[in-house]
Amino acid sequence: MPGRDPNQRRLIALEAARLISEHGIRDYQAAKRKAAVHLGVRDTSALPKNDEIDAALREHQRLFHGLEQPRVLRTLRLAACEAMHYLARFQPRLVGPVLEGTADANSAVCLHLFCESPESVIDQLRDDRIMFTENDRRLRLDSQRSANFPVLRLRQANVDFDLTLLPTDAIRQAPLGRSGEQSLQRASLAQVQALCETSDQRVAIGE
């Protein structure tokens, strides 16, 4: 089939959604490429867009995890609230699948923290004997600028956490999301608490 066939795009999107949901692949580009390989598609010039993957992922979860996924999502949002209480001095913001409503058992709670220096977050974790690993992540600040930021990963009470450490002034403007066109959605503690209290587990939150 030609690379721009909409049916092919949908098949790739559905297979990518399955890989994301069942194998914990959170890199959409990697999921799309792997899906294309699984389907024997060599022309990857017109892979589905990220919003098509999001739609397919929601469809997959509704069909195959309709009862379990909302429960897991709520558990992760409650865990996010606890972590945000603990890290309140760093003005935490929830981002990623737990906020967007597509989280599942393989998802981490992803937080943006704002601090004068990464050591202030690291010191708090070490003082409370919380084990973590360190890495970095490249974020697009706007259409012209990108930068690397420290990331701390840890596991508490059977929940994975992913903490991106940003300078304090970065709270004014969220980096770009996966599409590279719009700012990343992020939510304050009060907004996440409101999500936990509503019956609609997929309410969209602005930054």
Could you provide a short overview of the structure?
The protein is 42% helix and 18% strand.
Helix run count: 7
Order of helices and strands: HHHHEHEHEEEH
The global form is globular
Q: What would CATH call the homologous superfamily of the largest domain?
A: Beta Polymerase, domain 2
Radius of gyration: 18 Å
Q: In terms of structural class, how would the helical and strand content be classed?
A: alpha+beta
Q: Kindly state the number of beta strands.
A: 5
Q: Specify the CATH architecture of the largest domain.
A: 2-Layer Sandwich
Please mark out the parts with pLDDT under 50 across 5 or more consecutive residues, or reply none.
200-207
What is the highest CATH level, the class of the largest domain? Alpha Beta
- CATH level 3 topology of the largest domain: Beta Polymerase, domain 2
Strand content: 15-25%
Give the end-to-end Cα distance, rounded to a whole number of Å.
Answer: 40 Å
Main sheet summary: 5 strands, mixed
Please give the order of strands in the largest beta sheet.
Answer: 1-2-5-4-3
Helix content: 40-55%
Overall number of structural domains:
2
Mean pLDDT: 88
